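ok so I'm stuck.
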Amino acid sequence: MGSGKAFEEGQSFAPFVYFIMLIGVAAMCLPPHHWPIILLPIGAMLLTTNLLYERTEVSGDGVRVQFGFVFPLYVRSIRLDDIDTVVAVTYRPIAEYGGWGIRGMGGRVALNARGDRGVLLTLRRGGTVLVGSQRPEELATAINEVRAVS
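replied:
not stuck anymore, here's the structure
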C-alpha cells in the first residue's frame, strides 16, 4: 500500500478468546511434562495470539486487511478499481460466515475480528468481501472518498 492512509484500524479478538487459550495452554503444561514438551503449547499459543489481530488500512492503492500483530500471517489487498460497491452493514457472524477470523470460500469472504458490524465490498469480477470494523461508517466513507479521487 502506498503512503497517505485515509483510514487505519486495529482490532483484537474478544478477551474471552485469549482466556480460553490461556486455560488450554496451562492445562497442557501440567505435570508430568519435561520442559521441551511444555515449550510446544507455549509456542503454539504465541503464534496463534499473533494471528488474533486484524489491521485494516485504506490508501490510494486500495483496501488492505492483515491478520497478525507482530508479523502478518495473512494479507488481503483489494485494489480500488476492483471494488464495485461499498456498504456499511450489520451482519450475523456465526449464521452468515461461521464465526470470526478469516472465513468463507470462493466469492464470499469475511475478514473479521469481533463484533457484528463491517463494510461489505462487492467486487467487479463477482463475489464479496466483508471487512469487519468497529467503525464501519468511517471505513466505508474513507473507501468511497479515496475511490472518488482515484
